[in-house]
Design a protein that fits this description.
Chain lengths: 159, 159, 159
Amino acid sequence: MTEQKKTTIVLFSGDYDKAMAAYIIANGAAAYDHEVTIFHTFWGLNALRKDEPIKSNKSFIEKAFGKMMPRGADQMGLSQMNFAGMGPKMIKQVIKKHNAMTLPQLIDMAIEQDVRLIACTMTMDLLGLGEDELLKEVEYGGVAAYLGEAQDGQVNLFI
Amino acid sequence: MTEQKKTTIVLFSGDYDKAMAAYIIANGAAAYDHEVTIFHTFWGLNALRKDEPIKSNKSFIEKAFGKMMPRGADQMGLSQMNFAGMGPKMIKQVIKKHNAMTLPQLIDMAIEQDVRLIACTMTMDLLGLGEDELLKEVEYGGVAAYLGEAQDGQVNLFI
Amino acid sequence: MTEQKKTTIVLFSGDYDKAMAAYIIANGAAAYDHEVTIFHTFWGLNALRKDEPIKSNKSFIEKAFGKMMPRGADQMGLSQMNFAGMGPKMIKQVIKKHNAMTLPQLIDMAIEQDVRLIACTMTMDLLGLGEDELLKEVEYGGVAAYLGEAQDGQVNLFI
């Protein structure tokens, strides 16, 4: 009997294209029957934000971060050739043309395939993000949760 | 008998310095007798572009991406301190001074050492890149091809 | 008897937030009893710079890189939302508020936990950095030193 293979991804980046790459690999690995975990930290947490504003009791700096950071996967910019927001529009147009999946669709697919989406609680604190601002499918954990998975993983990536 | 070790790199970035790092690790691993694969996706595909313009039948957005993206390894910018193109010139000057290898030389060396260079067909579609625009040594595949290699790899990196 | 697990990180990036992530994972892995190595290359070398200027005999370009690059962990910018230096100040304020650790503190902790900090000699040459400019705890090596560790590692990341 072969043990189930494991893929873990640290999604640090808040870029639309990098998050796409992370979720494409995650979905591929899940289809390949890997156990898959995406650990969202720093700007990667933005992929998990709900797209509506959430009322909350934040300090000034937390409010500032909350306002400036993209609210959800669909609002994220590109790592290269962002052109003040034109780049993501272009990418979304070609995604549509080629019947490829957008980032929100890739995230939905990952949830359907039981990819575990973990939000890093330490960086949520730093950026002032609350659990009520993130998708309901999200689990919460710290670096220990990540390492517990990664040390048994065959494919471990930092994106 | 020990099995041959395996290194896989996803080259996502289109930055000269990051591609250098990817190819230096790949060449090192090949010299160490690893089986090495570099899977080029998104902006990392630019490292594989031929340096002359290729006539092709593209849509407007594909043409726009094609024009704006660097045509080949030698045209790529730096991830930090790019200074509107001054950074790469400075780096190339110090590479020359220290008798180190430029990115195109590192790619040639990888080809000589049988490093497999795979281009991600899905992102080629998105960015409107055709096979006639890429180096002739390139192989083509998707996320399944990547995972098939990576799940048996000892060193798997996302760059 | 179980063999000791191993974590290796290539720290390529010179961003404060990415270096924080690298050192948080490294410290976590060390606490988990992994043998941990951080291999600093390109802009990641800046995390190891002493914060005072060092007199040295450099070429013009080396001097330029030396001046423009941040002198030590505390001077580094953010990968996203840097806002001409405002971002790092905001992050440091929230770190303080949440009693979290700053990057220099994370580096000190890594040294205390015997995380091996290796500086890539090849990129030190390229960027014109000398051993007298880096922290005294630093070891020196090339890509072979990195691969020697990584091929036996369970968790290998490129940051």
